[in-house]
Write a structure and sequence with these properties.
Keywords: Oxidoreductase. This is Short-chain dehydrogenase/reductase. Belongs to the short-chain dehydrogenases/reductases (SDR) family. Pfam families: adh_short (PF00106). With about 280 residues, this protein is of the alpha/beta class. It has one domain: NAD(P)-binding Rossmann-like Domain (Rossmann fold). The protein is about 50% helix and about 15% strand. The protein has nine helices and nine strands. The strands form two sheets. The protein has a seven-stranded parallel sheet, sandwiched between helices. Strands 5-8 form a two-stranded parallel ribbon. Strand 6, helix 5 and strand 7 form a beta-alpha-beta unit. Helix 1 packs across helix 7 and helix 3 packs parallel to helix 4. The protein is globular and about 60 Å long. The relative contact order is 0.13.
Length: about 280
């Protein structure tokens, strides 16, 4: 990470985005573009840090705003060194309970908005042959549970998109890190959570029960956003930053258990898997 690194962070009004913006700006050698749909919610960050901070309006689903925000950031600071695609939210519904308009809004923000911002920032990074793209996924991008299927689908998409991006930009001097938090004390399971108005009784004991359990975690999540922010800064500043960065004990425990389950399933069905190829003599 260069001296006087310029960070561009989406979704800074609350939660991890806000904590990360604060942590970056606590370092006098760093600068930050802090964005939110309502710029008034991040104006205090710009006021407190003078010419090291720029607060901008940004709804990641608005292409014109994306282009304008990136342009203004580059005009103000000359470049963007670290892009953090953090804007996103959750949605509770069994798959069958999903509402079409809500599902499309979710993908517009969590996937298409992230991709749009990334595409807007990449030309500058390519020109300089340096940069770091940080995409905020979730433990839910590695493992899925009932009631959050559509949210998982967005995060699985972010994982695949980011892994492909990493392969494409590595020869250009650009790094990619996928951040995978477990439950952190943010608004995700509270004010920012959306949920389907549809309730189907047959899912009461599965998706329905998990809806209630998820909402009940609000304000009691074990993850500390400030510590998560420091972990992200540490990873970005590393000589060899990870492609994936798990955050929180639950993320580590569940992700490693997931690896074990996948290995067991793959090994159990190995012979059936291998038998699907043409016989060697037909290759």
């Amino acid at each position: 990470m260069p001296e006087n690194a310029v960070w561009f962070i989406t979704g800074c009004s609350t939660g991890l985005g806000r904590a990360l913006a604060e942590a970056v700006l606590e370092n006098p050698s760093m600068r930050a573009v802090v964005t939110a749909r309502d710029p008034a919610r991040v104006a205090d960050l710009a006021e407190a840090h003078g010419d090291r901070a720029l607060a901008l309006p940004l709804d990641v689903t608005d292409h014109a705003q994306v282009v304008d925000a990136v342009k203004r950031a580059e005009e103000t600071f000359g470049r963007i060194d670290v892009l953090v695609g953090n804007a996103g939210y959750g949605y509770l519904a069994a798959v069958e309970e999903g509402e079409d308009a809500e599902i499309r809004k979710l993908f517009d923000t969590n996937v298409f908005g992230l991709a749009d911002v990334t595409r807007a920032v990449l030309p500058g990074m390519r020109a300089r042959r340096s940069g770091h793209v940080v995409t905020v996924s979730s433990l839910g991008g590695l493992a899925a549970f009932g009631a959050t299927g559509y949210y998982h689908a967005t995060k699985f998409a972010v994982e695949g998109l980011s892994e492909s991006l990493a392969a494409e930009v590595a020869p250009l001097g650009i790094k990619v890190t996928i951040v995978e938090p477990a439950a952190f004390r943010t608004h995700w399971s509270g004010p920012s959570m959306r949920q389907s108005a549809i309730r189907i009784d047959d899912y009461a004991e599965t998706a329905g029960a998990r809806r209630e359990a998820t909402l009940a975690t609000y304000g009691r999540q074990p993850g500390d956003p400030a510590r998560a922010a420091e972990a992200i800064i540490t990873a970005v500043g590393s000589d060899e930053p990870p492609l994936r960065l798990l955050l929180g004990r639950a993320a580590y425990d569940i992700a490693t258990a997931r690896l074990d389950t996948l290995r067991t399933t793959f090994d159990t069905w190995r012979e059936t898997t291998l038998a699907a190829d043409f016989p060697e003599g037909n290759l």
